[in-house]
Design a protein that fits this description.
The protein has two domains: 2-256 and 451-476, Aldehyde Dehydrogenase, Chain A, domain 1 (3-Layer(aba) Sandwich), CATH 3.40.605.10; 259-408 and 412-437, Aldehyde Dehydrogenase, Chain A, domain 2. Helix 11 packs across helix 12 (301-312). It starts with a helix and ends in an 11-residue tail after the last strand. The chain is an alpha/beta fold. It has helices at 2-6, 48-67, 70-86, 88-99, 103-121, 123-126, 161-172, 187-198, 213-221, 234-246, 269-281, 301-312, 326-341, 378-381, 397-406, 420-429, 465-471; strands at residues 11-13, 15-17, 20-22, 26-32, 39-45, 131-135, 138-146, 149-153, 176-180, 206-208, 225-231, 250-254, 259-263, 291-297, 345-348, 368-371, 388-394, 412-416, 434-437, 457-458, 473-481. It is 40% helix and 22% strand. It binds nicotinamide-adenine-dinucleotide. One of its GO terms (biological process) is thymine catabolic process.
Length: 492
């Protein structure tokens, strides 16, 4: 499989079941490199029979895997960690080829994945399950158990990092994992499956089933799959949560976002400009943590002027990657036009972009800044998922917070200020799961967990950190009583 990537041949994104590569019955579509427009892979759709095959291969090994010592499982993850680091270039180039982001951005995502593997590997050292005497001769004890066979469904924008939010934590506690990657960026899944096999993961412990809604529905409906984690857009996250839980499964589904940055007049200009620019342009704005609304409080024109000047200097492929599909690119251009018609001033127009010849067929949109956007307009409300920043002018912090908190999502919110009291005020009141103070992308580092609130997440807990371990496992409570037998004459 690796050789196809190295030789840059057309890749077939097929299933990985029981340690073997198997083509699903139905062909789905193809993947085009967002930077060049060239077709680089064919994709397939798994149906209920393919899923049943993956479940069967997991059933054959799950008990043995769960009985394998925690230390041995951690050692396999450690091998996998090493494999990722050794193959960093191939992995980041593949991610860049299929989802458009710059290779260095892909590498950042992979390193976050490595951080989570390290967290999972630390479980043998950190696991302190509780055992205590509760009355004479009686003890109570917690033991952690795997759920059995579990599944994860991942989005297009982080083909390696988001799966790494799930796979290491699910495996370390003894589950078999069935992964459905995004059909838009399925190539990376082949490399990850290969890497885990090379690391010594027994066949059947990880399966990859390719596909779309049909496959997702099949996973939700399969009665032997005990838990579903999902990351993607809010409407789908809601549907998947409903479908999985209605059938008695444990579910945690992370949805979309509309993240706000509050810019205070006392903010340090350089810190704010760098943080805001990185937030809305990183991965071409196609991140669930990207800020897309700037709540400009009071007189901050000097900061906005520098921000706009820097945004105008961006060059495709050097400062920013491409938009994932041509449909998304057209949708974003239409959004800019619509916002303009609704009265927004286009301070920086990313549609005017000079594209190098070899990338002319790619989906390129430079950073775009819209000023005087109203809180009621669609640009302020909808997740646009591109490098577009909408500025809403606010009289004071109370107005900015009211706008932030009226938005139904709750992934991230940030504030740029030099005042500790303002930072604390925002941290306490902003209705978001992850808060940034002078940080534009407030992704917590492990062991702090990742997860939003409100319409950005359905289900209890977070996807990483200890929450992740809890999600993929169950606790057994054991109460034991041992009575000393009088007949045990060997005791005295
Ligand atoms: P998406 O919702 O279109 O797809 C996500 C997954 O769901 C894919 O595997 C896809 O095949 C599947 N899917 C698509 N439509 C489906 C349907 N109708 N029924 C069942 N399954 C379906 O999302 P995307 O475009 O791949 O990713 C971008 C979205 O993901 C954005 O909204 C972004 O904010 C969100 N996201 C959220 C987080 C987070 O942590 N909250 C992280 C990354 C991405």
């Amino acid at each position: 499989m690796l050789s196809r990537f190295v030789n840059q041949e057309l890749v077939e994104c097929i299933n990985f079941i029981g340690g073997k590569w198997i083509k699903p019955a139905e062909e789905l579509s193809h993947i085009k490199n967002p930077s060049t427009g060239l077709t680089i892979a064919r994709t397939f759709r798994s149906n209920a029979l393919d899923i049943a095959q993956a479940v069967k291969s997991a059933q054959a090994v799950q008990k043995v895997w769960a009985e394998t010592s925690l230390r041995e499982r951690a050692q396999i993850l450690n091998q996998f960690r090493g494999w990722i680091l050794e193959n960093m270039e191939l992995l980041s180039q593949t991610i860049s080829n299929e989802c458009g982001k710059l290779p260095r951005e892909a590498q950042d995502g992979l390193l976050k994945g490595v951080e989570i593997i390290e967290f999972s590997m630390s479980l043998p050292a950190s696991e302190r399950l509780y055992k205590t005497p509760v009355s004479r001769g009686v003890t109570c004890e917690y033991r952690r158990e795997a759920l059995g066979i579990v599944a994860g469904i991942t989005p297009s924008n982080f083909p390696a990092m988001v799966p790494m939010w799930m796979i290491p934590n699910a495996l370390i506690v003894g589950n078999c994992f069935i992964w459905k990657p995004s059909e838009k960026t399925a190539m990376t899944s082949l490399l990850i499956a290969e890497g885990l096999k090379k690391a010594g993961l027994p066949d059947g412990v990880l399966s990859v089933v390719q596909g779309d809604k049909v496959t997702v529905d099949g996973l939700c409906d399969h009665e032997d799959i005990k838990a579903i984690a999902f990351v993607g857009s809010t409407p789908v996250a809601k549907e998947v949560y409903k479908r999985a839980t209605s059938l008695g499964k444990r579910a945690l589904t992370l949805g979309g976002a509309k993240n706000h940055i509050i810019l205070m007049p006392d903010a340090d200009k350089e810190t704010a400009v760098e943080g805001i620019l990185a937030s809305f342009t990183g991965c071409a704005g196609q991140r669930c943590m990207a800020a897309s609304v700037l709540l400009a409080v009071g007189e901050v024109d000097h900061i906005i002027k520098t921000l706009s000047d820097r945004a105008k200097e961006f060059q495709p492929k050097i400062n920013m990657g491409a938009i994932i599909t041509n449909e998304s690119y057209i949708r974003l251009c239409n959004a800019i036009e619509k916002a303009h018609k609704e009265g927004a001033k286009v301070l920086v127009d990313g549609r005017k972009v000079t594209i190098p010849k070899e990338y002319e067929k790619g989906n390129w949109l430079n950073p775009t800044i819209l000023d005087n956007v109203t809180a009621q307009s669609f640009a302020a409300k909808e997740e646009l998922f591109g490098p577009i920043l909408s500025i809403i002018r606010c009289k004071n912090l109370a107005e900015a917070l009211a706008i932030e908190n009226a938005n139904p999502f709750g992934n991230a919110a940030s504030v740029f200020t030099t005042r500790g009291d303002v930072a604390e005020y925002v941290a306490e009141r902003a209705q978001s799961g992850m808060i940034g103070i002078n940080v534009g992308i407030p992704v917590p580092r492990e062991p702090f967990s990742f997860g939003g609130i409100n319409q950005s997440k359905f289900g209890h807990g977070d996807i990483t950190g200890e929450s992740g371990i809890e999600f993929w496992s169950q606790r057994k409570k054991i109460t034991s009583k041992w009575i000393q037998q009088k007949s045990n004459n060997w005791m005295s």
